Amino acid sequence: MRRIFWLLIAIPVAVVLVTLAVANRHEVRLVLDPFRPDAPVVSLLLPFYGYLFVAMLIGVIVGGVAMWASQGRWRKSARLKAKEAAHWHAEADRLTRERDAQSAGAAKQLAAPGA
Question: pTM for this one?
Answer without folding.
Answer: 0.58
